[in-house]
Design brief:
With about 230 residues, the chain is an alpha+beta fold. It has one domain: YmcC-like fold (Beta Barrel). It is built from five helices and twelve strands. A twelve-stranded mixed β-sheet has the order 7-8-9-10-11-1-2-3-4-5-6-12. The chain is globular, with a radius of gyration of 17 Å. It starts with a helix and ends with a strand.
Length: about 230
């Protein structure tokens, strides 16, 4: 489910870039217990999205993305747009062909004020299609701030790259493109092996500041791989 969350997560921006980069911190909860932090750095032509499980670094000028696994200390670098045939082993490609994340997205008339911003509610139904069988079904309320600035485009590009990497279903990718704005809060209810699990991802900090050294780089002790 954590990977699926990353697929749909589009955090927030309500500010046009000034001289510094934009830093956004979101906390992730499972059944009200915090189990992770998402750090996002947005620059003019670069973005870094850091979670406990994955790191993504995107450089628009170079047309490249770095995708790292912090626990394994490995990474892969790829040209943008992605050519998944070059990034997946035959075994992984075969497995992904049987595992697709599908879903639908609908904008509602519901509104809510979050971080002093008026947000609109989007309802998303999502499931894993496992050889034609629905598993891991979930329903998500996504609260979206639609009056965003132009600097957010770089992160939208990165999120679309992540979706291409983690899911091969073009129909769901197009559904997600219906969300016009920046997500401040995701409230997720998932059915998993007869258990109901509640997830929540919410933004806790938005600030403009100079990025720490190396935040747009893969750590030097990570080993490069050719395939995901």
């Amino acid at each position: 489910m954590k990977q699926a969350i990353v697929v749909v997560l589009v955090v927030l921006l309500g500010t046009v870039f000034l001289s510094a980069d934009l830093y956004i911190k979101a906390e992730r909860y499972r059944n009200e217990t915090k189990d992770g932090v998402h750090d996002l750095w947005l620059g003019k032509d670069r973005a870094a999205f850091i979670t406990p499980e994955e790191i993504y670094i995107y450089n628009k000028k170079l047309k490249k993305v770095w995708m790292a696994a912090p626990k394994q200390k490995t990474y892969v670098v790829a040209d943008v747009p992605l050519d998944m045939s070059k990034l997946l082993s035959p075994e992984t490609a075969a497995r992904m062909s049987q595992y697709k994340i599908r879903g639908t997205v609908k904008r509602t008339d519901k509104t809510r004020t979050i971080l002093n911003k008026k947000c609109v509610g989007y309802e998303m139904d999502q499931w894993v299609d496992l050889a034609g069988k629905k598993v891991n079904e979930s329903k998500t309320m996504i609260w979206v701030y639609e009056d965003i600035g132009p600097g957010f485009a770089i992160f939208n590009e990165l999120m679309d790259i992540i979706r291409q990497k983690t899911n091969r279903d073009e129909a769901f990718r197009q559904e997600l493109l219906k969300i016009k704005g920046a997500q401040l809060l995701l409230e997720i209810v998932q059915a998993y092996h007869g258990e109901t699990i509640n997830y929540r991802i919410e933004v806790k900090e938005i600030s403009e500041k100079d990025p720490p050294a190396g935040v747009y780089e893969i750590p030097k002790d990570f080993a490069k791989k050719e395939k995901l």
